[in-house]
Structure formats: C-alpha cells, structure tokens
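Run log // design_07
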C-alpha cells in the first residue's frame, strides 16, 4: 500500500479515534443493563471468524455492532474526504462490505446482527436491541417447550 499524504494534525486526530468503549457504546450498555439485560462486551460471536461484536447476548444469539457514521458510511451522515479521496472511498466501502459479510455469516450460524449507528439515541437503540433479545429468547423457550412435549408423547 502506498503512503498517504497526511499532516501531523491529521495523524494526531486519527490516532485519538476510539475503537472500543465509545460514548454511544457505553450509553447503550448502560441502558441495556438498566433494562435488566446482561451481556458480554467485545466478543467474537462465532469461533473461527475474526469479527468482534460490541455487545453479545450469547444464549439469545444476538450480536450488536455500534457503527460510526464516518467509518461505516452512514446514509445520513457519511462524509467523503477530499484529501486521499480514493483511499477513503475504498476504505469505507470495504468496511461496508465487511459489515454485510459479517451479518450474513452470523445469520448462517443462527445469530441476529443488530446494527446501531453512533447518531442514534442510546435509549431508542436499547429498546430495539431489548426487543430483539426478548423475541429470540421467547422463540427459543417455545421451541424447547415443543421439543419437551414431543419427547413426552
């Protein structure tokens, strides 16, 4: 890969970008915890696949990803840098393609991927995540009850 044109200010700003425990991620985790949900953070839902979810509900098989508007090309807030435009376009489009691939791999393994944009309200996102987790828990409980019922026949 060829070296990018950059300035000391840009390098310093980019080096300060958080990858984990961002403001929205922490606020979302607090809202989920307050709603009585328990989870793991920064885990790989599927063994052998190098994709880490921000929040993981193992038994319900729900993986939550908190996506930054810039890094993941938010349809509402994405900006396309003028400097090194070709590099950044490729980088962001690559992130989007990886996100789609991750969602597909999770679905193939019986997981649900929930994507939360950094601009979303943490409380609204928590409601959406909680609903998904509870629906999947209820579905598993129903399937287990049917299975037990059939075994008793």
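design_07 sequence
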């Amino acid at each position: 890969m060829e070296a990018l044109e950059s300035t000391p200010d840009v390098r310093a700003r980019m080096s300060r970008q958080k990858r984990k425990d961002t403001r929205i991620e922490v606020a979302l985790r607090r809202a989920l915890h307050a709603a009585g949900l328990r989870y793991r953070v920064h885990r790989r839902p599927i063994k052998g696949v190098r994709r880490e979810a921000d929040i993981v509900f193992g038994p319900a098989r729900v993986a939550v990803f908190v996506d930054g508007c810039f890094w993941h090309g938010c349809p509402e807030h994405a900006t396309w840098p003028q400097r090194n435009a070709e590099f950044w376009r490729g980088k962001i489009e690559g992130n989007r393609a990886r996100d789609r691939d991750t969602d597909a791999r999770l679905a193939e393994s019986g997981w649900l991927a929930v994507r939360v944009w950094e601009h979303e309200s943490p409380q609204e996102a928590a409601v959406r995540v909680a609903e998904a987790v509870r629906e999947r828990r209820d579905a598993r409980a129903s399937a287990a009850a049917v299975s037990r019922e059939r075994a008793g026949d």
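The chain has four helices and four strands.
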